[in-house]
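Task: encode each sequence below as structure tokens.

Item 1
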Amino acid sequence: MNVLVTGGGGFLGSHLVERLRADGLDPFVARRADYDLTREEDAARLFADARPELVFHLAAEVGGIGANRANPGRYWYANLQMGVHMLEEARVNGVQKLVVVGTVCAYPKFTPVPFHEDDLWNGYPEETNAPYGVAKKSLLVGAQAYREQYGLDAIFLLPTNLYGPGDNFDLATSHVIPALIRKMIEPPEEIVLWGDGSPTREFLYVEDCAEALALAASRYDGADPVNIGTGREISIRDLAELIAEITGFTGELRWDTSMPNGQPRRSLDPSRARELFGFQARTPLREGIERTVAWYRSHAPTYAAT
């Protein structure tokens, strides 16, 4: 089977490519340097080059709260355009299956915990990442519409916050776990963190997510969105203390309450993925962070100048 992975050189994409190769597949890896998927002509050229039967659409422009606040228009435009082009090219080229990766940021700000897929449309996303979340959620509408009108087997998955080896450790765009790891391994006497530490988040080890995507591609063919997560949440304050313990950071953690907290709580109900295609996360948070810290320590010189 010809398999295409957009964003295959990125964080999740590289792990998915490894997972697919372990299954004996040789996926076509689409990288931004070669294909700008916000451009229709580049998307068409990609499909002509890859001739895919199965497509995983992972390419995205994304970052933490700071990056979302700095790039609301770009994140809305780029993520919407890339997804629209993937849906249309999959239709035009007769793709057998399209796996679209959404985001937990699509959920309403005050969704009851744990988030269930049926709550997805019951409100507006948290403001700091709403443009990104709305763009991704629009692709669910597109996937369902293309399934209904054209018979395209497009499935839509909603991973929670990912972390693990190979994550983005650029402090300008990174998410909370890699940012904390980098700051605590290259420590000043004090680290200033946004908000008050009370919001909760759920974190999924990247290799577990790659496993979920592979399982969904082979076992799930429905129109309904499916959460990909652990079902376990931790406060940002407790997370910071855990990473400090693992890294050996002994400085002071100071909370800047003038900065936004983000969504108050975030944790998924993962039961639909377990029931529909047998996915269950296997990596405990502490173990996953220990692996990520070890990976960063071995690659820290790469980031020293950034």
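Item 2
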Amino acid sequence: MNGMSNKLRWGVLSTANIGLKKVLPAMQLGEFTTVTAIGSRDFGKARQAADALGIAKAYGSYEELLADPNIDAIYNPLPNNMHVPWTIKAAKAGKHVLCEKPISLTAAEAETLLAVRARTGVKIGEAFMVNTHPQWIRLRELIAEGRIGELRAMMGFFSYFNVDPNNIRNKIDVGGGALMDIGCYMVHAARFAFGAEPMRVVATVDRDPAMETDRLTSALMEFAGGQAMFTCSTQLAPYQRVHFVGTRGRIELEIPVNAPPDRPTRLLIDSGSDLFGGGITVETFPVCDQYTLQADAFSKAVLEGGEVPVPVEDAIANMAVIEAIFRSGKTGMWEVPQKS
């Protein structure tokens, strides 16, 4: 990869806020990652973003960006309904793709990526950046070594308040709503911790009367080894927390998803010996940026021929659970996640 063989050269589809504010500055700090181009449907916006972030090239269309032979991989933070179409176009252009979560609108749509990946030979991953954060890696280690006995339950909560009808997260036709935007992390967390897929789910979904997006969704997922439940909302005070409870202890992730890039994170292990917290051991993780770690893990997988942190198979399984939760919200019944 001419002259920069130690770094994967990335192009970015769109000047989406998450990219400009959080992901791209972090990617630029990567050991195996460099962002060389950004594309927008508006050349002025692309140029402005490129200048602000020190990115060499700006393109006034996504097509031009994909045609650049000096780009190895694409980061796709487009609206949810554009994830799969543009991931497919990027793959056909021979680019590896890291696509924002949720990877698609349905499990069936996500499944179309399997054939494309097989045909093009590129790597495709979903951007659940939590997978590569030290606090989540440590969580899995602690569960595996039996620190809390046998994991039997997960309880999660994730919310923010946003009632702006012009915000993309509040638009139903592009895949907005609480479950798609933030509930997906809770589904992912349960599958990550149990290391399995839920057998069935049941949920209650409250939709905004005007915007029609789900604004308050609660779900219960039944695993062979236990149960996971969560509530997510786009119209509640901002809060996030996840508890993993076992037969001999509990692990709490204090800031499970929006781990700060500028101060340490903490994981709490509670033996349960004292309801006032006397049995709590705190593990602190040094300052790191999970978006840097995510991009580097993906880049490394491409450069060294390994597996990306969240491959298409995992993304499909997560979407299948999300869809089952939506179905249950309509039927009021237990629903089984369906993959073809």
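Check on item 2: The longest helix spans residues 312-331. The mean pLDDT is 96.
End of task.
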